[in-house]
């Protein structure tokens, strides 16, 4: 399915249907990540329940420590 | 030396004054401001050079480390001799910055930042810029900024990725609200590397927000968490206002500033990704480096000294002793092993 991820059209593998799976796919499951879907920030506790639809605008911002 | 008055004639700031949102009025404001920059690595050298050139009145820059060759690829104020001579970053930066703009009062401090140092340094500071490489220090900055009502600008980067957020006490969510939990481990510049444009991009965001705050143009602030990946051609920013928690222990209605009370958090710490342990003596002290050199030279191994530190190599291990009492033990990630070596040398 195609979504817009961080501003870029991205084709996601079939197996990804919710936000938890999306974060795992991008190896972000252990990171502190702020997830926004269609303009709304989705709390970490709701990632598993939040399904992804074709055409969703998803922003993933993960925190890093370097500098 | 050029006399101070001469700068007005030199029109040093003319292009910045022509930029309408700053103007002559903004330039005068900049000259009255004091910025504290924590960290003189990649982000720190970028931010401080920009702000020194821009004519901020006073800048304090703090760092606990010394220059190494692996820094030169991206830490823009340092030269090869700084690395050869292991000059502390705060000293090398201060020297270079004074040559760039002698009109700015630049203070470089070689120190590890804990609650104590921050409490001493923050009075009178208008803005804090985060240029550290770890979350422990950032959460300390976050609490001290909330406690003293000082805005601060988070910035971080790794590989070709970076992000930044401007935290205004009483208005925006704080770092504690955003993080919820302290990120552990993960990628660092030492494990997955970094390219300098990622640094410069974060610096551009941080310095620009700093200028807006310093000339009191708050309505021009970005107001969003911004992130990018230069190699993947990604760029995004999101509004995080809704993440502010009214019961946050750092910025909520009844703050306890939790990160200011962890007294022992940095007594000994592993420097992430560097195969190095830092040991801080429990009490502040001024180490007599000459005397130390005398002691060390009877122990075998190689001793090198500059005015700020002593480096001691024995076998695979290298220890660096700073005047403020701190010791870096290179070649190990094991705190116990580092302490054994420390006590063997210093008793
Ligand atoms: Zn908060």
Automatic annotation (TrEMBL), chain A:
This is Sulfur carrier protein ThiS. PANTHER family: SULFUR CARRIER PROTEIN THIS. Pfam families: ThiS (PF02597). It comes from Evansella alkalicola. CDD domains: Ubl_ThiS. InterPro entries: Beta-grasp_dom_sf (IPR012675), Mopterin_synth/thiamin_S_b (IPR016155), Thi_S (IPR010035), ThiS/MoaD-like (IPR003749). It comes from the Bacteria. Coiled coil: none annotated.
